[in-house]
Q: What sequence folds into this?
C-alpha cells in the first residue's frame, strides 16, 4: 500500500503559482517515482481545491476520487482505485477549520 497525504496551495482552487494542472502533475510524478509494483495507492488530504477544480479534475483522470468532505466548500479529498467500505465518516472539527474524516478501504 502506498499512502500519500497532500496539503494543497492557497488560494482555494488556484493550484498555487503554477496552477492546478501542474500541482496535479507533480503529485502524480511523486507517486510514480515512489510507488512499488503491486502497491495500491491512497491519496488524501486538504487539497485546497474543490470538486471541479483543475487540480481535482486532472487527478481524477488517473486516480478515482473516492470521497470528498464538505468543509470549506469541499477541499478535502480521498483518491484511490480501492473500493471504499461504507460511507465517509465525519468526526467533527476538533478545533480545526476542516472536519476530521474517516474512510475505510477494501484492501
A:
Amino acid at each position: 500500500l502506498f499512502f500519500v497525504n497532500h496539503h494543497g496551495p492557497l488560494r482555494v482552487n488556484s493550484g498555487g503559482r503554477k496552477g492546478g494542472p501542474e500541482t496535479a502533475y507533480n503529485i502524480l510524478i511523486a507517486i510514480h517515482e515512489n510507488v512499488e509494483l503491486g502497491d495500491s495507492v491512497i491519496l488524501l488530504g486538504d487539497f485546497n481545491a474543490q470538486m471541479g477544480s483543475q487540480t481535482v479534475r486532472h487527478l481524477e483522470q488517473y486516480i478515482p476520487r473516492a470521497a470528498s468532505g464538505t468543509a470549506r466548500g469541499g477541499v478535502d479529498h480521498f483518491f484511490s482505485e480501492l473500493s471504499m467500505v461504507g460511507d465517509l465518516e465525519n468526526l467533527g472539527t476538533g478545533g480545526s477549520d476542516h472536519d476530521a474524516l474517516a474512510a475505510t478501504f477494501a484492501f
Notes: The mean pLDDT is 96. The first helix runs from residue 20 to 34. The longest strand covers residues 2-7. The chain is about 20% helix and 25% strand.
